[in-house]
Amino acid sequence: MKKVFTKEAPEAIGPYSQGIIVNNMFYSSGQIPLTKDMTIVDGGIQEQTHQVMANVKAVLQEAGATLESVVKTTVFIKNMNQFPEINEVYGQYFDTHQPARSCVEVARLPKDVLIEIEVIALVQA
After folding, report:
1. Distance between CA atoms of 102 and 73, rounded to whole angstroms?
2. Stretch (H or E) spanning 91
3. For residue range 21-33, what is the model confidence (pLDDT) as tens digits?
4. Among 70, 85, 92, 122, which is most buried by a count of CB atoms within 10 Å?
C-alpha cells in the first residue's frame, strides 16, 4: 500500500490519509469543500461541489489517476433536495465518462459542509 498526499488538496483533518493506492487502484478519502488552505469555500451547494471536485482532481493527479480513470464515486449530501444542483456541477466533471455512483443523504458531514465525495480509480501504469 502507498499513502497519497498532495499540498494541492486540504490535509486530512484526522488520523487518515487523503488516499491509498493498492496495486493499481486508488481509494480516496472523502473530500469536502475545504480549500488547500483549510478554509471552507464560500457559497452554496454548487460552489461547494466545485471545490470538492477540485480536491478530488488534485488527489487523483497525485495518485497517477484522472477523472477519466474513476470507476466509482460515492456522494454524501446533507439535503437530497439539492440533488439537481449537485448533479449539474457533477456532470461538468463526469460528462462523457460516467463512473458508477452512489448518492446518499446524511444527517451531518465534517465541519457541517453540504457535500462530501470519495472516489475509487484505476491508477495509470
Report:
1. 6
2. helix 83-93
3. 999 999 999 999 9
4. 70
